[in-house]
Amino acid sequence: MTHRKHNHAFGTITLTVAACLLLWGFQLPAWGGDDTQVEPLALRKIMEELGRNMQSITGAISQEEWVQVVQLAPKIAAHPEPTLTEKMRILAYLGADATKFRNFDAQTHDAALAMKLAAARNDGKAVIQSFAHVQKSCLGCHQAFRKPFVEHFYGIR
Predict the structure, then answer these.
(1) Do the beta carbons of residue 82 and residue 50 sit within 8 Å?
(2) Domain 13-21+42-154 is classified in which CATH homologous superfamily?
(3) What pTM value is reported for the model?
(4) What are the per-10-residue average pLDDT scores of the chain (157 residues)?
């Protein structure tokens, strides 16, 4: 696993949480019985973009469009980050599990970069293997964090 040098260690975390929210989908409940909806985290829009990029990569792989995979994979690896305030809320909630969360995100980052390199070599088999690693890290995070995260931030049980 490569170690990346960045000052946004949390940044890669957003991929996993975002994927959880996007891939599993949910409706936001109203607070306190009135018609006011819960304000979604900015992370939700980030996850939606990641989901679109993952779908595009899937299509590109099926058509063996390696140039498109080369262009899209970095968007998975270096996705946008939530605001600092939102990052702090998420990290505070995660507490001791923040490291586990970051590890899932780091795995996703590394696998997406490996996918880019494989696509640049026109190595379809390696692209598919790297894509599977991205998916496995997403699934691992979903299984570990999705339900508690949605319950905590959106009150959905």
Answers:
(1) no
(2) Cytochrome c/b562 (1.20.120.10)
(3) 0.74
(4) 42 43 40 52 83 95 98 95 90 93 93 98 98 93 85 84
